[in-house]
Amino acid sequence: MSTSDSDNIDHLNNEFSLEVAGNNLHFKAGSGGLPLVEINNQHGRALISLQGAHLLSWIPAGEEEVIWLSEDATFAAGKSVRGGVPICWPWFGAHASNADFPAHGFARTTHWDVVTTEALSNGNTRITFTTQPQPETQAMWPADTSVQFQMTVGKKLEMELLTHNNGSETITIGQALHTYFRVGDVSKVLLHGLDDTSYLDKLEGFKCKIQHGPVTINEEVDRIYLDTASDCVIEDRVLKRNIIIIKCGSHSTVVWNPWQETADKMGDLGSNGYKHMLCVESSNAADDVVTIEPGKAHQLWVQYEVQGI
Q: What is the rounded average pLDDT of the residues 9-29?
């Protein structure tokens, strides 16, 4: 770690660290020299990278790890991390008109600044981030927008992505909280909440299909479920728990698992990593992209909770 990196960590700790009656937040250097935020309180623990404001771990008190992170994940400046909760913004998937722009936007690989940290009266910990326009991102996204990301860590996890249109023209964004959930065995998981829902099957040229019953995973799955606002529940019989997903500001849900053949080609999912992860992404994708009028804002909010079964 260079002197400047060390100075930056010290500065962050001096300005934003917390140590309040068992509610602790501090900054440290992580793999690849990327600064991390470590949160510990009576209700849970979390680890967040300042690159991408990327959640890497969330462990509610008395529970096992909820977030999957690849054992072969790369930690380097400007590189996306395989696992955790990447923020896809300001578009989802491939860029609509420029194939050279990164898939899922640039928010997950840019530096985010800490705005505030707070020890809440209920014992939870809240941290708010923002990211500022940079020369390389302004070329891809010239619109005058500001974006904030707020995370509240406790027995439940809340995340809010807030986009403000500061310009004089209407803008359209696509986005997702691309959460990799850790599961015991993905082939034995049932995903509830999407029954009788139409979805676009990316593996068949975005052909429209209808879901019948809970979603099960026994092959590669890459789908955008449409007109979905209801809760989803990951029923994990191996880890004996349900993960409950509640959302607001999203009417599409992406479900993804690459399965073995595609995972092997990706090179950073780890040995049999696909067996222990399932992405259920609260999104604004496909026809659910969001139009924001000048002076207005859009909020994408999610809450995760674990219950034993």
A: 96
